[in-house]
Amino acid sequence: MYCEVYVDVFFVVNLISGFFVLCLTNQLLTGAANSVRALLGAAVGAVGSCFILAFSKELLSLKNGIFYAVTAVAMVSFGCSVKGLKNLILKMLAFLGCNFLLGGFLFVFSQRARRGIFTFGAITTCCYWTLYIGIRLCKYLKRKRELCCEVGIALSGKEINVKGLYDTGNCLYDRATGKSVCVMEKDSFFQLLTEKQQRFLENFCAMNMAEEKLAEEEAAFFRGLNPRFLPYTSVGCQKGLLPVVTVDKLIVREQEEERKILHAAVGISYTKLSEKGRFQAIISPGIWEK
């Protein structure tokens, strides 16, 4: 069987497909498609494919299979900034997966892609953007899901569970305890208190402590609660004072994982944290730092 192949066209076809596969690999693993490195890696792969085409008598052989594997490793090494053997294996798996997906798309449109190099380039570009948008969308949905969690607050034998949201912009830091501060809506937190305790804490937040005296047991309770004020700034509020208390335990549940913080600092918000009530607590990622 006779087949006429133009080496320059063959090189360009491999260069385009290799470039897009490496860009997808970078996007999948690092979140950024480094175009220069991807182009360099794709050029290595295209040269290797042309070398096999020019000097090999049998395209399907063990020797060529080994050469293809070495070429793929070189493409990933040049195009994806490999650091260590474990990282190389991970990026090789991602590279093969992206190669499979892009190849599957091109197989569907194989009849039209054979009409010319420009048609092939246009179809490959459309397939690349389809996969690129799909990867970005999946990563966005995963990140959005990971930001949400279930929050439990334990105080004096009582416990409530509310919906929480991780907020990297929450930089509140309690100088009295040296801990990061999470924030919870007042209505949710007050479920842990009796009516008299609620009234006392309301007076404290209003800086009006002269109304009533506490029994010894309640006084001990509030010494453990350690109510205090924390200066803060936020969008729409240049200067403010946030009431902060210490709870016995803060529990964060994410999917099947549960983490606990003892004697956590919790700020009490008198305003709704979300308009539609999607969450009642804001969790600072800094609470896990020791």
Concise summary:
By secondary structure, the protein is of the alpha+beta class.
Can you offer a commentary on this structure?
This protein is an alpha+beta fold. The chain contains 9 helices and 10 strands. Strands 1, 2, 3, 4, 5, 6, 7, 8, 9 and 10 form a 10-stranded mixed beta sheet that branches. Strand 1 (148-155) and strand 2 (158-166) form a beta hairpin. The longest helix is centred in the middle third of the chain and has 31 residues, at 117-147.
Determine the strand fraction and express it as a percent band.
15-25%
Instruction: Give the tally of β-strands.
Output: 10
What structural class is derived from the secondary structure elements? alpha+beta
Distance between the ends: 70 Å
What attributes does this structure have?
9 helices; 290 residues; alpha+beta; elongated; 22% strand
Give the SSE map.
Blueprint: H1 7-29, H2 35-55, H3 62-79, H4 85-108, H5 110-113, H6 117-147, E1 148-155, E2 158-166, E3 173-174, E4 179-185, H7 186-189, H8 195-205, H9 216-225, E5 228-234, E6 237-246, E7 249-254, E8 257-262, E9 265-269, E10 281-283
Parallel strand pairs: 2-10, 4-9
Antiparallel strand pairs: 1-2, 1-7, 3-4, 4-10, 5-6, 6-9, 7-8
Helix pairs in contact: 1-2, 1-4, 1-6, 2-3, 3-4, 4-6
